[in-house]
Specification:
By secondary structure, the chain is of the alpha+beta class. The chain has helices spanning 12-22, 35-48, 76-98, 105-126, 147-161, 178-183; strands spanning 3-6, 52-58, 61-70, 131-138, 166-172, 186-191, 206-212. A seven-stranded mixed beta sheet has the order 1-2-3-4-5-7-6, with helices on both faces. α5 (147-161) links the parallel β4 and β5. α1 (12-22) crosses α2 and α2 (35-48) packs antiparallel against α3 (76-98). It starts with a strand and ends in a 5-residue tail after the last strand. 27% of the residues are buried. Bound molecules: coenzyme A (COA). The site of coenzyme A has 19 residues, from β4, α5 and α6. Coenzyme A binds at residues 22, 64, 136-138, 143-149, 171, 175-179, 182. Pfam families: Acetyltransf_1. Residues 120-214 form the N-acetyltransferase domain. This is GNAT family N-acetyltransferase.
Length: 217
């Protein structure tokens, strides 16, 4: 496998397909007119919160990415771009909502409230850390060949260059969270959220992982 990392989103469509193969997000909006719309919105929203996006290209095909942000290093160009992109995103989202493209607006808003309360809970755990990962995935066919480690290594090096001391992220039991254990992250918190995958009885289904940057090369 020929693995390359690019600092730019290329072939958004291929990245959306990889996202769809990773998480069944459309299940949260069963009445969406186009399931792919859910992935487009999720993808764009994660990128709005990021100033670092590395795309993994395997055998010439974009297969996934790592998107993240450093609290104390957000270049003006990135802030401006994300600000303008946010205006475009929320305008588009309002149109989608009002035209019932995701289903009944009341149901959509209910689902979004659940997502926001999950994000808010995770934010409390992630906030003390000065680097955060917003999105990290690879197409199932591209996994297990080192592309994930290469993406993570690049982000850790970038965070280290800008003097970030720790990286945080949240994940859940439907994800390959053991990747983080393997990489050297530690599990800082676990929680239960009704919108995540059903856990074993009484167990948590979400985790916050952190990595101390001094611990890595
Ligand atoms: C997480 C993910 C990006 C890792 O990418 P990857 O290319 O498969 O990982 P790599 O091949 O670089 O593996 C790096 C190391 O992690 C380990 N690893 C990777 N996935 C693992 C898994 N699911 N369980 C246990 N260990 C895993 C590998 O054995 C490897 O260890 P080594 O370097 O000591 O040999 C990928 O598995 C994925 O997209 N998973 C689904 C989405 C997801 O869970 N995203 C992250 C959580 S939000």
């Amino acid at each position: 496998m020929d693995i390359n990392i690019y600092r730019r989103v290329r072939d958004r469509k291929a990245l959306l397909v990889a996202l769809k193969e990773t998480w069944a997000l459309h299940a949260y909006f069963p009445d969406a007119k186009r399931p792919m719309l859910v992935y487009e919105l999720f993808f764009d929203m994660a990128l709005l919160a990021s100033c670092w996006v590395d795309v993994a290209v395997v055998d010439g095909q974009p297969v996934g990415l790592l998107a993240g942000v450093l609290k104390h290093h957000q270049p003006v160009a990135c802030r401006l771009y994300n600000f303008l992109a946010s205006i475009a995103f929320y305008t588009k989202f309002a149109f989608i909502l009002l035209t019932h493209q995701l289903g009944k607006p009341r149901f959509v808003l209910h689902q979004l409230r659940e997502v926001y309360s999950l994000e808010a809970m995770c934010k409390l755990h992630k906030d003390p850390h000065d680097a955060q990962i917003e999105l990290f995935y690879l197409h199932p066919k591209a996994r297990g060949h080192g592309a994930g480690r290469a993406l993570m290594k690049n982000f850790v090096a970038y965070a280290k260059t800008h003097r970030a001391r720790s990286i945080a992220l949240w994940t859940d039991i439907s994800c390959s969270y053991t990747f983080y254990d393997n990489y050297g992250f530690s599990r800082d918190a676990s929680f239960f959220s009704p919108i995540l995958a059903e856990p074993e009885k009484g167990q948590d289904n979400g985790f916050v992982y952190t990595l101390k940057i001094e611990d890595k090369e």
